[in-house]
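Form 7-S
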Amino acid sequence: MQNKGLIKFFAILFALVSIYQLSFTFVASKVKNDAKSFAKGNSEKELKYLDSIGKEKVFNLGFTNFTFNEVSDKQINKGLDLEGGINVILQISVKDILKGLSNNSKNPVFNKSLADASANQKGNQSYLDAFYEAFDANSKGTVKLASPDIFANRSLQGEGGVDFQMTDAQVKKVISRKVDESVESAFGVLRKRIDKFGVTQPNIQKLGESGRILVELPGAKDVDRIKKLLQSTAQLEFWETYKIEEIGNFMMAANESLKKTEVNTTEIKAVVKDSISALLADDKDSTVAKKGNNPLFDKILAQGGGPVLGLFSPKDTAAINGYFKRADIKILLAGDQRYAKFVWGIPSTIKDAKGKDVDAVELYALKGNRDNVPAMSGGVVTDAKDTFDQLGKPAVSMQMDGQGAKSWEELTGRAYTQKSNIAIVLDDVVYSAPGVSSGPISGGRSEISGSFDVTQTKDLANVLRAGKLPAAADIVQSEVVGPSLGQEAIDNGTNSAIWGLIIVSLWMMFFYGKAGWYANVALAVNLLFLFGILASLGAVLTLPGIAGIVLTMGTAVDANIIIYERAKEELRAGKSLDEAVKTSYSWRGAMSSITDANVTHILTGAVLFIFGSGPIKGFATTLLIGIVTSLFTSIFIARIFIDWNISKKNDLTFVTKYSKNIFTNFHFDFLGMKKWTYLISTVIVIVSFTSLAINGLDQGTDFVGGRTFQVRFEKPVSTETVKLELEKVFDGSAEVKIFGSDNQLKITTKYKVQEPGIKADEEVNKLLFDNLKQHYSAGMTYDKFVNAYDGKSLGILQASKVGPTVAEDIKTNAYWAVLGSLALVFLYLMISYRKWQYSLGAIAAVAHDVIFVLGIYSLCYKFMPFGMEIDQHFIAAILTVIGYSMNDTVIVFDRVREYLAGKTKGSFSDIVNQSINTTMSRTINTSLTMIVVLLIMFVFGGESIRGFIFAMLIGIVVGTYSSLFIATPILVDTISKEDKDKVEVKHQEA
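Output:
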């Protein structure tokens, strides 16, 4: 080996750099463990401890020091499935941005195009492109985007804006730029909010040009609070309000009108008094007084007063909103009241008639106008901070700019004169509606008070300081993982990695003796390099990423196996050890096979990295890095030891006395079996397609959208019982399966997955808790059930949500990933082998393998004791199967090509058969190490990736079969008789 000294130098340098990079991870881990010990389970105390030492020196290398913040930035970060926390993808509403840019245009073509874009948006198509497509179809050239009532309005005119003379193509460029600016603005606002939230190492990034923003908050635990913080647009407004006596006549008329459609006239119940009926009706009026005869008033829990029309149950708000939107009810509003805007306050807890605590929310009527704009906008607020009001209750203080101060003085002066109230409204929720008792307020300072706790005022001040989002931000995908579940994943991953390392190492020693030891040293160095690169890149380690590392152990010895097997062949042919080693490490020896196998593997890994997301991208990252480091260590590090052995004149046979005759002297007629293997594979394909047509596949929420909850109970519960309980409240949409142990369920539902906003998420969580709490002891509360905390072992351990648009994008990406990887590999093999028949044989074998795996999943998902969902993890497994199937096929094809170009005598089929037989030791060894590693992952890797590993396990087994019995026979059958005759003539003459 030339340049041996240079290779040693770089290997030692790389090892030192890797140790240096990994040292930060060890130090950061130690400090975090100290913080946990100090906090004793209190997550806020733990965060404060870490914040307090952020700038303290915690790592001294003698020549330089590092603070904890610097150490944290350089460590290997753990993904949410290992660390616990919250991961969400926010969709900035491009529809709202377009409405704003058009000044809420009333143009029918424009508004129809907005609606069509929402309805017809395709997978991986941006909303903006869908809008352009819809507008072109609807306008048919008769309406232009540069129309005065669309985008050529006053706010968009001027330099860099839209003028009347522009073509649609020119306007699209301007609008696309404006939308990008709005998304960038939203990105900045969210970053400011998150930076003030108080979690360590938050991650926020834009996802391409989709208008989506990924937010990862490792260690975050308060689910509902975080979702509110992220989705709040911070649209602050100040509205004048109607008083109860001003709007009471409308409420009375609405109640009477609703009786015609909402009341069962035969129903008679006890008398009840409420605020509106008490104010406007005679107690003797039985029509009003009877409970059950008043659709609107019967829903009032407690009397209001002043601007509060009454207090209602949160579950009734949707029905009441529906009442007020009805045309026959809206027409009852007279005069300026027809512009009234009915909104709700923040939820609170009150006592009902029996003294029991119940949730309640206040109803307000805001004084609207023709343009539906508030008396004053919150854009004038320049600063906000959490404080306490005169009664010592948590509040938020705001400071306004000069123009805002003037408007505020006028507004408060009018309220003082009219003895009215001013509602402070954030994102269409009334936070308080104070009156003005001491005259106009000058100076531009005001205060928001209400039923707050300190955390709420901190978050409210945070979003006001950061500014408002330019459009609504809806959570279209989310995942919540509890810290205890993360620790379980770490334990499972660590166990599988250790067992994988032990078994692979023992096998290499058993089969190759001293050379196996060298391969094991190379494997250890490979793992050091792999972790060192992950640390230097700031990569995020996930559970699938750990699976990728364990798989790397199998591939790390793959190149060694190919080299060692070739060296054994050369030794059997009578060459000296030195000559055998040089030949095996040459291109004519093992290098061409290793190159082709790994290039095909890298291509599929790259496709997986491009089209994958989250944990799958982590899997692809470790897999790709592992391939590169494995090649280096297998080819160069192991070679250093082998050359050292040769220089010392030590014997090296690449076998042991136990393995000397294993997998040797094969004389099997593979091509003679092709009729049977074709028949068997045809039956498998037919059965698979039949099952796919009849049974289909168990498509996960990644592909169809929905919500998934991993819920753990105190003792085993019946899946059928839980399913029936949840179907009643989730409109029949509930799927319940045992997930791992008998006391753990995986619950899936599509209930309200299309509804944006935090309210739908909270409603689903509360319905889930209300219907499952009977299976827990009395100590289980909603907060304990939903939110994450250290040591949590019951309730929701993991929750995820995938919106339908995201699911469509994921499904589209999956199709392109599989097709793209097949196309890339086909092209590479055709270039490498210079004959399309090789590519056809390889692709046919891979297609066979993919169909087989899909068939197994279709046939077995209904009764297997572990999840067999078709999701992103499954697609990652399929792409990995494609890579490994190609790996096996290339090993065989390289030997076939070598023998066809050599001097082996016999017919074309005999030559091919001999070439296949000589690869059996390599084929079985490489496949066997992978199968053993996958079995370890399947047993020890944890429930969440068991289906993912099972797909790969089946794929590797069937891939080995197809390489021998499908790929090669197809290669032989598609080569022309003329080419076969040429080969036979050449070999007979040799």
